[in-house]
Amino acid sequence: MSHTSPLKRSFVADLHSLIGQRVKLCGFAETIRDQKHMRFIVLRDPTGKVQLTQAKDAARLTVALDALTPESSVVVTGRVTAAPSVKLGGLEIVIEGAEICGLADARLPIAEDSGLDKWIDHRQVSLRYPSQQLVFAVQTTLEEAMRSFWKQHDFREIHSPKLMGTFSESGAEVFAVKYFGTTAFLAQSPQFYKQMAIAGGMEKVFEVGPAFRAEPSFTSRHETEFTSIDMEIGWIDDHYELMEIEERWLSHAITAVALEHGEAIKQLFGVEAVPPTLPFPKLTFEEAREILERLGHPLGTRADLDSEGERILAEHMAETTGHEFLFITDYPARHRAFYHMRREDRPDLTKGFDLLWRGMEITTGAQREHRYDRLIAQAAERGYKLDALSDYLDFFRFGCPPHGGMGVGLGRILMRLFGTASIREVTLLSRTPKRLRP
């Protein structure tokens, strides 16, 4: 008895090498055009689009496809035929068999020009658009490249808890949840546990995971839940060592994206994916303040940069240095987290930094205070209750090495790679103060 193997799935991107052969395709019916004797269907899969043709004298096929609606999911078999007049790649598939797997409602809820809010309302449809398919292909490549850098440099991955018994950054921006008769808090970052890992001798750690901020912000770059990329590194000399590691890590990841997706990003988003030149320029906060003063944007008594100041600085540095990236270092201690190490010569300043990319902050980092007595003093200086921080402070009682690290917003990196106006355009499902659905 002979056994015929089922036809394996092919993809649109491979069809030019399969002309004359019988293939099986799976995808969505993007458009359907009926003529008197022929039906033309554009099928879309993750790799591209192809025209399908069906002669209506094939009664069985005609009946099977008469019910087909745009965006229905289908499986078709047919022969790949060269068709130079066809704009979609100069070929078509002559349908021999078809199955409608999932019939779409005849009236679709959105179109590509419906606007971002409707896109998010109906994400199962908007995710099918080629631009959105590319976003998550790039995200995958980006994270793979980040992980390859970490592996090459002996980092270890951790997965820290997101339910905590105390706040991890600032008590003002924390989500409190009921927890078996007590109150738990959603982690604002893995900061405490990254440092615990360093105290435990792991030396270099990273984590990619969710973070939560109960911040009533309605800007285009803030979300209440987001993906945070975190690193922590032991035995560093200063915060400049951290910046050198981050710029090499980012260059490695962006180069991978440019090589694999640069052409598609330019085609669909009109943006050039260009690997950055190293090293990134650096300004102290005081230097940045002076430049902004000269450029007509005084910060007054502010101890940080506002979004307009970030934009102006970015334009200035792009004009004077040609760089899109800029580190701002040595922020005033009163604006930074209590665990940031202070400068010995200027205890009013921290050994911390932010990284701006085209005028938007994508990273906050610092050398941490690892000396138990100084950490207690800095927490008390802020008015924190030491008993609430007892678990964290205990990490430093038994000889913690000098260390530091950073937190990076994945969505903000993607915003800059694609040149989008909102972080919601590059997030699977956005969470903001006014959005909890779908």
Automatic annotation (TrEMBL):
Keyword Cytoplasm listed: yes
Enzyme class: ligase
GO cellular component, one term: cytosol
Stretches assigned to the Aminoacyl-transfer RNA synthetases class-II family profile domain: 136-438
Residues noted as binding L-aspartate in the record, renumbered to the chain: E169, R213, T364, R368
Keywords from the named record: Aminoacyl-tRNA synthetase, ATP-binding, Cytoplasm, Ligase, Nucleotide-binding, Protein biosynthesis
Pfam families (alphabetical): tRNA-synt_2, tRNA_anti-codon
Signal peptide start and end residues: none
GO molecular function, one term: RNA binding
Subcellular compartments: Cytoplasm
GO biological process entries: aspartyl-tRNA aminoacylation
Chain residues that bind ATP: R213, A214, E215, E361, G409, L410, G411, R412
Protein's UniProt keywords contain Iron: no
Catalyses which reaction(s): tRNA(Asp) + L-aspartate + ATP = L-aspartyl-tRNA(Asp) + AMP + diphosphate
EC number: 6.1.1.12
Region listing for Aspartate, in residue ranges: 191-194
Similarity comment: Belongs to the class-II aminoacyl-tRNA synthetase family. Type 2 subfamily.
UniProt xrefs under NCBIfam families: PRK05159.1 (NF003483)
Known partners and oligomeric status: Homodimer.
Cited function: Catalyzes the attachment of L-aspartate to tRNA(Asp) in a two-step reaction: L-aspartate is first activated by ATP to form Asp-AMP and then transferred to the acceptor end of tRNA(Asp).
Protein name, per record: Aspartate--tRNA ligase
Taxonomic source organism: Rhizobium hainanense
